[in-house]
Write a structure and sequence with these properties.
It is built from six helices and eleven strands. It has about 220 residues and is an alpha+beta fold. The longest helix has 14 residues. The protein is about 30% helix and about 20% strand.
Length: about 220
C-alpha cells in the first residue's frame, strides 16, 4: 500500500497478547506502526471503533484514514490509485465526504453482509446490516475497506459517547460507525468485482490458487 504512494503509514492495532510478535514482524517495515489496546481477553476488548479512535489519538493522526479488515483481499480489478482518485471526486462534491467499496452479491447472500442502498449519484442513503433479500432491493455488499475523511474523524468521539452504555456489539465492528456516519455525513461508493473473506484455511487455499492463476505481475496488483 505504501508503494502506491497513496498511503504513507500503516497502523496495526492488536491486543496485549500479540503485541510483541507484531512488533518483531514490523521491524522489517519502517512505515508500519504497531499499537496495543492493552486488553488480554476477547471479553475485555475495546471494540474496533474504539481501537480506531485510540490509534488516531495515540499517533495524532490529522489526515484521511483508510480502515481495512485484515481478513479481506480484493480481486485483481481493485486499484488503490483509482480508489483515492474517486475519493478526491467525492471530496470535490462534498468537503468531508468519505468513500467505501461495494460489490454485487448473490440474492441469498444479503443476510451475510452489510448492504448499501445508494442513489443515482452513488451516494449511500443507508446501510442495512445482514438484511433478508425481501428487506432491500439492493445487492451491494460492503466489505471492510473504508476511507474516512479527516473531517469525519472527530465524530468517532460523538459516536462512542452515544454508545458508551450500549452492548459491545453496537460499537465493535467498524461497520457500526459507518452505518451511523451515513446518516450524518456524505458517504460515496466505488464498485469492485468482488473480494475474498480469508477467514479459514479452505478460503486461504482458494484465494491463493485464484491469485496464482490470475495475477501474473505482483508489482501491478493493487496499484
Amino acid at each position: 500500500m505504501t508503494a502506491s504512494e497513496c498511503v504513507d503509514t500503516i497502523f496495526v492495532i492488536t491486543n496485549a497478547l500479540y503485541f510483541e510478535p507484531f512488533q518483531e514482524w514490523a521491524r522489517e517495515f519502517p512505515n508500519v506502526k504497531i499499537l496495543s489496546d492493552g486488553t488480554k481477553t476477547n471479553e475485555a476488548r475495546l471494540g474496533a471503533v474504539a481501537c480506531l479512535q485510540l490509534t488516531i489519538k495515540h499517533f495524532s493522526v490529522e489526515d484521511h484514514v483508510i480502515v481495512v479488515g485484515g481478513d479481506t483481499l480484493f480481486k485483481e480489478d481493485f486499484s488503490l490509485l483509482k480508489f483515492t482518485e474517486r475519493f478526491s471526486e467525492a471530496q470535490a462534491k462534498h468537503r468531508g465526504a468519505s468513500l467505501v467499496l461495494c460489490y454485487q452479491c448473490k440474492e441469498e447472500e444479503t443476510s451475510k453482509y452489510g448492504i448499501l442502498e445508494v442513489d443515482e449519484d452513488m451516494r449511500v442513503s443507508c446501510m442495512k446490516e445482514k438484511p433478508q433479500p425481501s428487506e432491500t432491493q439492493s445487492r451491494k455488499a460492503c466489505p471492510c475497506f473504508y476511507l474516512f475523511s479527516k473531517e469525519s474523524l472527530p465524530l468517532l468521539d460523538v459516536f462512542l459517547d452515544e454508545k458508551k452504555n450500549a452492548p459491545i456489539q453496537e460499537r465493535d465492528a467498524p461497520g457500526t460507525f459507518l452505518s451511523w456516519l451515513i446518516l450524518r455525513r456524505p458517504v460515496y461508493v466505488q464498485e469492485i468485482l468482488g473480494r475474498f473473506d480469508v477467514g479459514n484455511l479452505p478460503s486461504y487455499i482458494e484465494c491463493d490458487k485464484y491469485f496464482k492463476d490470475r495475477v501474473q505481475d505482483n508489482n501491478v496488483y493493487l496499484q
